Each structure stands twice: as C-alpha cells, then as structure tokens.
Amino acid sequence: LEKSSRSEKREICCVHLIKQRLLFRADLEVAGDSEGESRQDLLSEKPDARPTWGSKAQYILAQVGFSVGLGNVWRFPYLCHQNGGGSFLLLYLLLLFIIGIPFFFLELAAGQIIRQGSIGVWKHISPCLIGIGFASCVVCSFVALYYNVIMAWSLFYLGSSFQFPLPWSDCPGAKNETAIESECMDSSPTIYFWNRKALHITDSIEESGGLDPALTGCLFAAWMLVCLAMIKGIKSSGKVEICDLFVCLTELVSGFFLSDVKFEGLDFFIIFLFFTEDFNVTLQVTD
C-alpha cells in the first residue's frame, strides 16, 4: 500500500511538473510573439516624411520662377547703369560664375541632403553656426516686409490702369489754373500721380499723414496672396511659382511683340550697356 501510494504521488508530481513546463513554454511563446510584434511595429514606424516636389521639372521651374523677381527686373538695370554699364556687367558675370553659382548649388545641395530648414541645416553642420540660420530668417522677414509694400503699389497701379483715361496721362486741373496744375507741370503727370495719388506724400517731414484706405487694402491683398501661396507648403508654392513664371514670360512677349509701346531710348541703353568704353569701375576694383 505504501509503495502504491508513493508511486501515485510520483505520478501526480510528474503530471504537475509537466503542466507547469507547458504553461511556462506557452507564456514564453506569448511573450516572444508580443515582443516580435512590438519590434515589427517599431521597425514599421517611420518618421514623418517631409513634403517633396511633385517632379524634377516642377522643382526646376519653381527655382527659375523664384529667381525672377524685383532684383532682376528693377534693381539690376539701375545698378548696371549707375556703375559703368558694360564694365559692371563683365565683372558681374565673372563673379557670378566664380562665386554666385557655386554657392547657389551648395545651398541647394545642403537643403536636399539634410532635408531641414535654414536653422536646422546650419545646426546639423555645426551647432556653433546656428546663428547664421537665425540671421537668414531675420533678413528674409525684413525683405518680405518691403517686398510686399512694392506688391501693394503694383496692385494699386493695376487697379488704376482700368480707368480711362489713365490718371497719370494728364495733369489734373488742366482747365482751372490751380496750384495742383502748376506742381504737375513743373514735374510730370506720372511723378505727380506717384507722389500725390499713390503715396500721398505730405508737404513736410513733420507731418506723418494717415493711412490711405486704397493702399492699406492693396497691402492686405498682397499678404493674403502670400498666405494662399504658402498655406500648403511646397504643393501650393511650387504651382504658384510656375504660374508666376508663365505670366511674366507672357507679359514680356506681349509687351515686345503685341503692343504699340515705343521704347524711347532703348537703343541708347543697349549701346551703353554692351558697348561702353568706360572701364573706370574695373580699374577701381583692381586698384
């Protein structure tokens, strides 16, 4: 009896041990499966991808549209005229190929490789250079302020151009001999319209003047256009740049070939720009 009871106890103990081992193995398998799933989840989780251009052509056209601005159309001819004409153009092209284009492609390459903003790019290169990123953001902010003012002036002139006759074609008060007419006659109708109608310049610097409703509305419209162009990031700004480039090219072609505008003095400007013999600016730079 004792032997039979002992054998039964051994069998019972063996059964309990087997059950415990099976349960332990099952727990290990469940834990392993959960760990594997968590690892797969971690591997499958990807960081938030930054927005990209729709195509290479869209990127190139956007860069071209971004490069064509007030600096090319407005400031460059003035600076070229004031600094020697052809000699300035020669030095400009030389420095453009030596310094301008290499640094331009270096900036594009840094942005494409690091894939961060202006501050993040310089911080990635070296934490000591993060101030350059902040400085570039400050400069862009100030440039945007006065560029939008110029856009507001352009919108004001665009709205005024729908009037007939044009408000800057003749001096106001031509029938009545007034002080306004004499002021306009001393300068020109365009200068008078710019100073008195567009800018509302006061007679003295001590008088600040008030807000002009038309210019204020044009400035608000300019900022709204910028907001709509940038609201979706690259997806919206790239399309806007392409449309801007197309509109600029269309205006240039129509202005040269389809309009009856007489470009008085254009031949003199081209001769001065490309065939000048004044190299004083070049000599001053080399000295």
UniProtKB/TrEMBL annotation:
Keyword Transmembrane helix: yes
SUPFAM superfamilies: SNF-like
Binding site residues for Na(+): 65, 68, 72
Gene Ontology molecular functions: metal ion binding; symporter activity
Gene Ontology BP annotations: amino acid transport; sodium ion transmembrane transport
UniProt-annotated location(s): Membrane
GO CC list: plasma membrane
Topology of this chain in the membrane: Multi-pass membrane protein
Chief subcellular location: membrane
InterPro entries: Na/ntran_symport (IPR000175), SNS_sf (IPR037272)
Transmembrane segments: 59-77, 89-108, 129-158, 214-231
Keywords on record: Membrane, Metal-binding, Sodium, Symport, Transmembrane, Transmembrane helix, Transport
Family assignment from sequence similarity: Belongs to the sodium:neurotransmitter symporter (SNF) (TC 2.A.22) family.
Protein name: Transporter
